Amino acid sequence: MKVTAILPDDLIIEVQKYTEGKNITDSLQKALSEWVKLAKVKKLNEKLRKQPLHFSNEFNAEKIRRINRT
Q1: What is the pTM of this model?
Q2: Which residue stretches of 1-70 are H helix?
């Protein structure tokens, strides 16, 4: 998607510095992709905080190890 955006020069320079992108477009793609990944992790953490994972009573680490080794 082609987008026109007015962004501060110092922000673009900083994004390019940290992403080491080939150009502004590459730098912005990397930065936005990373931001989306972090946002998804934060959302998952919130969900897990509200409703933590619970192992079933039948869970047995030794049984899982045997399954994974076969």
Answers
A1: 0.70
A2: 9-19, 24-50, 61-69
Non-local CB neighbours of 19 within 8 Å, separated by 6+ positions: 26, 27, 30, 31, 34
At 4-49, the pLDDT tens digits run 999 999 999 999 999 999 999 999 999 999 999 999 999 999 999 9
Sign of the four-CA dihedral 11, 15, 32, 40: negative
Distance, in Å, from the CA atom of 22 to the CA atom of 16, rounded to the nearest integer, reads: 8
- The one-letter amino acid code at 67 reads I
